[in-house]
Amino acid sequence: MERMAEAKKPKEVVITLNGVQFVVPPGTKVKDAAAAAGVEIPPLKVDPEKCKGCQMCTKACETGAISGEKKEPHSIDQSLCIRCGECLAKCKLGSIVPA
Ligand code: SF4
Ligand code: SF4
């Protein structure tokens, strides 16, 4: 039981944006962590060369700004993106980059 609890424990995420690295502690909004580090979330896009279509980002995006077929490169609709940065914390491949 103890092991399972440990496995589920959320971990901090380290994000690099425009050369600035900041840490997002568990339970903290990406935007808040960025602001604390003096970083403003810029307009974002998906790098199609890196994106594997895992869809982790689409589940994290509360405005539905990210779309794409599974296993295909995704894209961000700028008109729906509120620059919350949550997708940055979910993409393990670093496919989401400044636009
Ligand atoms: S920054 Fe926020 S709103 Fe924009 S695509 Fe990422 S998760 Fe969606
Ligand atoms: S989390 Fe990253 S690799 Fe996965 S679909 Fe989103 S942008 Fe692509």
Automatic annotation (TrEMBL):
Start and end residues of each 4Fe-4S ferredoxin-type domain: 42-71, 72-99
Alphabetical UniProt keywords: Iron, Iron-sulfur, Metal-binding
Molecular function terms from GO: iron-sulfur cluster binding; metal ion binding
Domain of life from the UniProt record: Bacteria
InterPro entries on file: 4Fe4S_Fe-S-bd (IPR017896), 4Fe4S_Fe_S_CS (IPR017900)
Keyword Metal-binding: yes
A family per Pfam: Fer4_9
Name this polypeptide is given: 4Fe-4S ferredoxin-type domain-containing protein
Species this chain originates from: Desulfofundulus thermobenzoicus
Lineage: Bacteria, Bacillati, Bacillota, Clostridia, Eubacteriales
